[in-house]
Design goal:
It is a single chain. The chain has a single domain, classed as Sandwich (Jelly Rolls). It has three helices and 14 strands. Strand 5 and strand 6 form a beta hairpin. The two termini are 31 Å apart. The strands form four sheets. It has a six-stranded antiparallel β-sheet with strand order 1-12-9-14-7-4. It has a four-stranded antiparallel β-sheet with strand order 8-13-10-11. By secondary structure, it is of the alpha+beta class. The longest helix has 14 residues. It binds 2-oxoglutaric acid and fe (ii) ion. Fe (ii) ion binds next to loops. Its cofactor is Fe(2+). This is Alkylated DNA repair protein. One of its GO terms (biological process) is DNA alkylation repair.
Length: 201
């Protein structure tokens, strides 16, 4: 099924100073379940330490980095070397590229094992990503809430539910003006896999 960038389901999420579109069903439930199972097994998942205010703590989720050769990436104080694309990741990348019109050379994967796993407020504004990065975020497995808050006025917030097979496309000035997070939840939920495709310049 071909989806247009401007159908009624993917109206803009942010009120100003950024461009975010949601495609609730880029992949069918059947495709998504297969990708979820494969990625859970195939991906070289690690729990990495990060440094917060000079103190080393373990990230509350598993991560992995895939991409074209020779692309390294710094993320919250760690430098990551990419694994080589798997067949599944390459197929997912091609689908995302056909919708977004961008060509991605790397992907950061996150696995949230349950509601206790999370990612805190941050912007994807590492200098390797360029000035106005296009970031395509694909979700498989359990639905999690993805929240935005304005960087200057932290009372301005928006949130979207990222369900199995969805694509969230962030572009334009989004990373300058908006932070995002996946908060912890006390709901009993299964695991979720997220892939954020990026362009390292
Ligand atoms: O899991 C998500 O949807 C968000 C992940 C994220 O923000 C990141 O990896 O930078
Ligand atoms: Fe992010």
């Amino acid at each position: 099924m071909q989806q247009s960038l401007f159908n009624t389901e993917n109206h803009p999420i942010l009120p100003f100073n950024g461009e975010v579109l949601l495609f609730p069903q880029l992949f069918t439930v059947k495709e998504s379940n297969t990708y979820f199972d494969n990625l859970l097994k195939e991906i070289n998942w690690k729990q990495e330490p990060i440094t917060i205010y000079g103190r080393e703590v373990m990230q509350p989720r598993l991560t992995a980095w895939y991409g074209d050769d020779n692309k390294t990436y710094s993320y919250s104080g760690i430098t990551m070397h990419p694994n080589k694309w798997t067949d599944d990741l390459f197929l997912i990348k091609q689908r995302v590229e056909s919708i977004s019109g961008a060509i991605f050379n790397s992907a950061l994967l996150n696995q949230y094992r349950d509601g206790k796993d999370s990612v805190g407020w941050h912007r994807d504004n590492e200098k390797e990503l360029g000035i106005n990065p296009v970031i395509a975020s694909v979700s498989f497995g359990a639905t999690r809430t993805f929240q935005f808050r304005n960087y200057k006025d932290k009372s301005i917030t928006r949130s979207v539910e990222l369900s199995n097979g969805s694509l969230l496309l962030m572009s334009g000035a989004t990373q300058h003006h908006w932070e995002h997070q996946i908060p912890k939840t006390t709901r009993t939920i299964g695991s979720r896999i997220n892939i954020t495709f990026r362009i390292i310049v």
